[in-house]
Known about the structure:
The structure holds two protein chains of two kinds.
Chain A: E1 2-13, E2 20-28, E3 32-36, H1 43-50, E4 59-68, E5 71-72, H2 80-86, E6 87-90, H3 101-112, H4 117-130, H5 134-137, H6 150-162, E7 168-172, H7 180-193, E8 198-202, H8 206-212, E9 215-220, E10 223-229, H9 230-233, H10 240-246
Parallel strand pairs in A: 3-8, 3-9, 6-7, 7-8
Antiparallel strand pairs in A: 1-2, 1-4, 4-5, 9-10
Chain B: H1 5-41, H2 47-51, E1 54-55, E2 60-61, H3 64-95, H4 100-112, H5 117-131, H6 138-162, H7 166-174, H8 179-208, H9 211-214, H10 236-245, H11 252-283
Amino acid sequence: MDKIVIENFSLEYSDGTESLREINLRIPANQLTVLFGPAGGGKSTLLRSINRLNDLADVKVTQGKILLDGVNVLDKKLDTNNLRRKVGMVFARPVVLPFSIRRNLTYGFELAGIRDAALIEESVERSLGQAALWEEVKDRLDDPATALSGGQQQRLCLARSLIQQPDVILLDEPTSGLDPISTLKVENSLQELKKDYTIVLVPHSVQQAARIADLAAFFLQGELIEVGIGAELFTKPTKSRTQRYIEGRYG
Amino acid sequence: MKLSSKQRMLVQNLAFAAMSLIASLTVIFIVLIVVYIVSMGAGAISFEFIFSMPYDGMRSGGILPAIIGTFYLTLGTAALAVPLGLGAAIFLSEYAPDNQMTRIIRIAITNLSGIPSVVYGLFGLGLFVLFLQLGTSILAASMTLAIMTLPVIISTAEEALRTVPQSFRVVSISLGGTRWQTIRKIVLPEAMPGILTGVILGLERAAGETAPIMFTGAAFFLPQLPTSLTDATMALPYHLFVISTQVPGMPIQIQFGTALVLLVFVLGMNLIASIIRSRARAKRQW
């Protein structure tokens, strides 16, 4: 079943940089979809359009539709705060808020006005478990989040995006600043998480894309060149531009 | 002319020495002023000087009404200038689009801070005292001081808000927060030490000014303490001006004693500002 359907989606920034042209893509539920390609291809832009975070940027034109469970998220009247609760996001650099570990997690509930202590307590433990961080921090939830290592901070950010049980998680190069061991932990968590969530990820390398993708979409300078099942696309790409990129000829 | 490396070293050392000398001059001046005022005025300081009314044409007794007056004026200025200034700073840093209107607002703020304080005094006299018929009063003087203080508060508060990393805002919004929730829960608390520092520095200037209150609320001599916002009041800087220039036969010790109290008041506020700043720096998590 398709969780997200992107139809004829085009976007242009006011300064003319990094635009997307006529993107059509179906993102299946409970799978890990990877958007990959060289920098400036529009992957992050597409990611940030799904949760309307691009509203913060200086966007000139958007056209087309992005349907999440059949609802067009680009609708001007849509409640974006609600949308962002359903679509969690993890960024390239781990940005922990200047609070304790616990409040970093519960901040989303705070914003939503949810005060059910039992639910919150349970969600903290669940989300930290899902991000493979619970064992490391369970005894120091009230320490400042900045006391954690970079890898732990990024897993905290993952947990934070999961705590309100979103439907979709968007990850924008989530492991670009992490060591191989932390990267592996995050990747393993994602494999577990896709049972319950739809995951869309921009990888920081082709290798990572090939390692984790169920479905892979190759973006080049604002165009979607090719979409395919991960295992197939990385071994037998149909377009020569995809093949040359995967082989490392450019990018 | 080409210098050998030894000569270049010499030039560098000379320039370095000259610059440290100039920098240390500022320290010398503040120390000189404080030492001078303290040595001349310390003898006047007594319980009676701080806590009693002046008498004998202000040549004897204390300066209580001036201290209380400056306290009231500072408080009044804060009550008016802080909400306005903070609101403007939040608007400029968080909401204002980059357009002509915003640029005009910024230019206005810069120019407000360049207006001489005596001009504020005349403006306050015209608008608050006469046109709005507030009379020479604590209210009119506080309003005048507030307008004078606004640009300092706005620009320091805006600066403090801008130093909060943009990524905090993006994350907060990505978690379903509104802009205002993000400002209230993250941006304002993080910027608060910087904002407070700016507020105190602005108020400190207001507390020490004579010209803006001269026509709007400060009294030459009052036999009793002010009891309402519409009363005029004595104030430390104006009192100092009066007893230094307008009262013949004034004991010099009282003049310097008054200057010392004003100096302590202002430097004390400065000290509070630095304590807030250093505490916040120690606590900062990013």
